[in-house]
Design brief:
The protein is an alpha+beta fold. It is built from 21 helices and 17 strands. It has 4 domains: 154 residues, 2-Layer Sandwich (Beta-Lactamase), CATH 3.30.450; 113 residues, GAF domain (Beta-Lactamase, 2-Layer Sandwich), CATH 3.30.450.40; 141 residues, Alpha-Beta Plaits (2-Layer Sandwich), CATH 3.30.70; 93 residues, Arc Repressor Mutant, subunit A, CATH 1.10.10. Helix 2 runs antiparallel to helix 3. The longest helix has 63 residues. It is elongated, with a radius of gyration of 55 Å. The protein starts with 18 loop residues before the first helix and ends in an 8-residue tail after the last helix.
């Protein structure tokens, strides 16, 4: 355009927009220029007359709209990210913490917290917080409809307070006000949480300075609350589903374990039945139980004595073990107990109301093992009953046999030999008769012990008259049978019974061959036993040889020599006692039997030592002082033993 085409600008006229300036202005708006920077640019353009006032106002308005749209877009993106994050969390506790953490971050508040409604109590209680410093605030419970929290939790509408403690438009509780004051909270705002048409709680924010929250903050909170409620319900449903699946999986594992346990019990039942039918049922049962229990197992009698077992067993006769066994028998259930710091479980085997024995297992017992123990106790009961039935039958045979052997009657001797042969006895082998004396109240227990000891050994054991009687081949002290010298004189029986707390005395005969000689052997054993009692040797075992001089005297008690010996050695003393009613012969016998010890003799006679000294001096006067020393002492001692045996009613026939 030429100079002639330019029109001069009149004073006061509005300049027309510059195309370049307009393009630059639009570029700045597109880059998202701030309001302050835009004002600087607009001022410069107006100074150059590149734009007018209307265009500047339009630019300001457009920039404000663009910034608001950008802010909303950013907010929507944050909300979308928040919703995506929340719905991706499957744990309820983690969702709750994420909600309050995101809310506090988006609103920019000092504190964010979430409450859940308890409709049973009519309260809404703070469940989780972010930014709260005091326990009082973290544990606030508000009645529905009270305060900001209670009002929001009813679900009617969002609610806020610029300065809660001074806000008289809100209802107050002393406890909640104290918690708010302790936390230093001023401004509070919250929105309800709704899920599936029901208000489940409230989402709130708080600041420690007084102010009002904007409508944008409230709108943002409502959006967060909507997403939070959905995420919370999703997490709750997922947790419930996961828990249900876990319970289902646990039930399936338990069912599989139960089926496996039943299969094991079924297999064990079969093996237990096979054990019950075997020849050595009790030892086989012990091995099977030790394998099944993987622990030491013992069978214990009702008195606490170990009948059979594997491993080192303590004394099960102590009060704790006996009480546990008695309780198990009463309840028919396993009962734990402790011995010397070690744990055991006992299950008693019972038949009717009779306690037969007890199974004792070392260590802790699982439920499966307890079931095995209960079944095993039933098998043990059956095994013991079978064994008892067999033993009773055997004992009846032995009882009849021992009576026929010791009281022979005319009959079928060949049948007698066959019956005796079943117990390892023969008419042509040496046999020993032993008479066992125990207290009457211990007789049955002693019989059971001796029968148990005699298992798998030749011989018979039974009650005969008022004592226990054993007929067996000679046994050497090691326990094996043989026919030469040095046989056991019955001491093994005394030792065995003593181990079971039974005091016994045993008289044994010399070995004899031929059933016809057994009655005489029995009389000899009985005489030896009575000689032991007469000589105050209770609790010992002996045969005639072990009695020493007393044993030799047993065969000559009715001979003229015995009478002459008594007259020659003790005649004056016997006459003195007869005339004076004294006990000088008994005093002399007791004195010499106690190795001429005055102290021991006085104690045995239950008299004072001075009284004993006076009696000994009187005996010295009657017999002479030499009766206490040298060869004369031996002669007097032998005569005194002969007197003692005669006083007990023994004669040459042992009757």
């Amino acid at each position: 355009m030429g100079a002639q085409d330019r029109q001069p600008v009149r004073a006061g006229a509005v300049p027309s927009p510059d195309g370049k300036a307009l393009g630059r202005l639009l570029a700045l708006l597109g880059d998202g220029i701030s309001a302050e920077a835009l004002e600087t640019q607009l001022a410069a353009m107006q100074a150059e007359n590149a734009i007018d006032q209307g265009m500047a106002a339009a630019a300001r308005s457009l920039n404000a709209r663009l910034r608001e749209a950008s802010r909303r877009e950013g907010l929507l993106r944050v909300l979308y990210d928040t919703a995506t994050d929340l719905t991706g969390i499957r744990d309820v506790e983690a969702v709750l913490k994420a909600i309050v953490r995101r809310t506090r971050s988006l609103i920019g508040s000092d504190i964010a917290y979430l409450s859940l409604n308890d409709y049973d109590s009519g309260e809404s209680y703070i469940r989780v917080t972010d930014g709260a410093a005091t326990a009082l605030f973290r544990n606030i419970r508000m009645p529905l409809g009270e305060g900001v929290l209670g009002a929001v939790a009813t679900g009617e509408a969002p609610s806020q307070s610029a300065d809660y403690l001074t806000d008289q438009t809100k209802s107050h509780l002393e406890s909640s006000d104290a918690a708010v004051a302790a936390e230093g909270v001023k401004a509070i705002m919250g929105v309800p949480l709704r899920a599936e048409g029901k208000v489940i709680g409230a989402l709130l924010v708080a600041d420690r300075y007084a102010h009002s929250f904007s409508s944008d903050d409230i709108t943002l909170m409502e959006s967060i609350g909507t997403h939070a409620a959905v995420a919370l319900e999703n997490a709750r449903h997922f947790t419930e589903m996961a828990n249900a699946l876990a319970r289902l999986d646990q039930a399936q594992r338990e069912n599989l374990a139960h089926v496996k346990a039943l299969e094991e019990l079924s297999s064990l039942d079969q093996r237990l039945m096979e054990t019950l039918a075997s020849a050595n049922s009790l030892p086989n049962l012990m091995l099977l139980l030790a394998e099944s229990m993987e622990s030491e197992v013992s069978v214990v009698s009702p008195m606490g004595e170990t009948v059979a077992g594997l491993g080192t067993n303590p004394d099960f006769g102590n009060p704790a073990a006996l009480s546990a066994a008695e309780l198990s028998a009463k309840r028919s259930l396993p009962v734990p107990f402790t011995v010397k710091g070690r744990q055991y479980t006992v299950m008693s085997a019972v038949a009717g109301d009779q306690h037969l024995a007890s199974l004792v297992v070392a260590g802790h017992m699982s439920q499966d093992r307890l079931a095995v123990l209960e079944r095993s106790a039933l098998v043990l009961s059956a095994a013991l009953l079978f064994e008892r039935t067999f033993q009773d039958a055997q004992y009846r045979l032995q009882l009849e046999l021992i009576d026929e052997l010791l009281n022979p009657r005319s009959g079928d001797t060949e049948a007698l030999k066959r019956r005796a042969g079943r117990f390892g006895l023969a008419d042509n082998i040496p046999l020993v008769v032993r008479v066992v004396d125990v207290r009457e109240d211990q007789r049955q227990r002693a019989l059971a012990v001796l029968k148990q000891q005699a298992q798998d050994r030749p011989g018979i054991t039974a009650l005969h008259e008022s004592h226990l009687c054993v007929i067996e081949p000679p046994v050497r002290r090691g326990g094996s049978h043989r026919r030469d010298r040095g046989e056991d004189n019955g001491q093994s029986l005394v030792d065995t019974l003593r181990q079971h707390r039974i005091e016994a005395s045993v008289g044994s005969s010399e070995a004899v061959a031929g059933f016809s000689r057994l009655p005489g052997a029995h009389a000899e054993a009985d005489a030896v036993l009575r000689a032991l009692r007469a000589l105050s040797r209770d609790g010992e075992a002996a045969d005639r040889a072990a009695l020493g001089t007393a044993g030799m005297l047993l065969g000559a008690m009715d001979s003229p020599f015995a009478t002459q010996l008594l007259t020659a050695q003790l005649g004056p003393l016997l006459d003195y006692d007869s005339r004076r009613g004294t006990q000088l012969v008994l005093t002399a016998w007791t004195f010499l039997e106690n190795d001429a010890s005055a102290t021991a003799a006085a104690e045995a006679l239950h008299i004072h030592p001075n009284t004993l000294r006076q009696r000994l001096e009187r005996i010295d006067t009657v017999l002479g002082t030499g009766w206490r020393r040298g060869g004369r002492s031996l002669d007097v001692h032998v005569a005194l033993r002969l007197w003692r045996l005669k006083s007990a009613g023994l004669n040459s026939n042992g009757s």
